[in-house]
Specification:
Radius of gyration of chain A: 19 Å
CATH superfamily of the largest domain in chain A: Nucleoside Triphosphate Pyrophosphohydrolase
CATH topology of the largest domain in chain A: Nucleoside Triphosphate Pyrophosphohydrolase
Structural class of chain A: alpha+beta
Shape of chain A: elongated
Number of helices of chain A: 2
Largest sheet of chain A: 8 strands, mixed
Oligomer: homodimer
Largest interface: A-B, 51 and 50 residues
């Protein structure tokens, strides 16, 4: 279930309705008892393409969904974090690595999953990495060895492709993507 | 209140605890009755710097917070939207205008407000705009007339400054900002 469903009010515990209420242009979860509107919104996923020399750091997922498939380190942004801090935390947790963030690589939308990815790019500090707790394996891949057919999510495939395009052109462009394409 | 507080379970209506539970690396809202973890996350705000010839489109806010101050059209991303679609909707709602999105201008973080902004940039279609329902006034400003001291939020000031920097340099760079700066 990607879209949040709300049955009871988190503020007073009474039943919530899903209806068109005054001042709103679309249906909202609303508590008629304490008059609270419960807004629901897409979640932000933050991650990084971490490179070292000519190699790219990928993690093999130890958890579902897509366990056993390769991915750029990424995960949900937590309360109180900036996107950059969240991406650094994910790189640490999933790849046991520190990254120097250099810029924004991609904003990639999955509206049907109610997610927006922000992928940064940056270099791997001192070339050091290990297996994070959420990874079976972490590895630096030469471009020719990238396991394109074993990637976990289209967000990573998109980000890696755009990174390689940038590199070929010698630019640092940020890219906007969506699945399905619109 | 920027950070969400959860007292009752939205799934079963029973009391929720805020504690360190198994498999989580930080305190979570948790229902001991139905075993639901209630994750809370920052919200994504999407908007656009809309230009026409050498002018920039600003809206004077008709609603709190910062009613009466100028802003780039922006607002919370809604369920099921891509960031780009959400930004176009906000431009329509606040400025009665259509925008051709050309790229990502800025990712701007307000961790203390639990918000991440994505500002796009793009040109105003046919130069047509009006006052959206959430605006007192909408106006195209020459750069020399931008009301810097009457801006609603630092996110807009940041985005406009970066757009002007890009223009001066003849580039389309995406920028990363944070308030407070880190």
């Amino acid at each position: 279930m990607f879209f949040q469903s709300i049955k009871y009010c988190s503020n007073c515990g009474k039943n919530v309705v899903f209806s068109l209420i005054e001042g709103e242009d679309r249906k909202r979860y609303y508590c008629e008892n304490c008059k609270t509107v419960h807004y629901t919104n897409p979640k932000l996923v933050v991650g990084a393409l971490v490179y070292f020399e000519d190699k790219i750091l990928l993690c093999k997922r130890a958890i579902e969904p897509r366990k056993g498939f390769w991915n750029l380190p990424a995960g949900y942004l937590e309360d109180g974090e900036s996107a950059e801090i969240g991406a650094k935390r994910e790189v640490w947790e999933e790849a046991g690595a520190a990254v120097n963030i250099e810029g924004i690589l991609a904003v990639y939308n999955l509206p049907q999953a109610n997610q927006v990815y922000i992928h940064f790019y940056g270099n791997l500090v001192n070339g050091i990495y290990s297996n994070g707790v959420e990874s079976i394996e972490t590895r630096l891949f030469e471009v020719k060895d990238i396991p394109w057919n074993e990637m976990a999510f289209s967000s990573s495939t998109f980000a890696i492709n755009k990174f390689l395009e940038n590199k070929k052109l010698g630019i640092n462009q940020s890219h906007l993507g969506c699945f399905p394409e619109v």
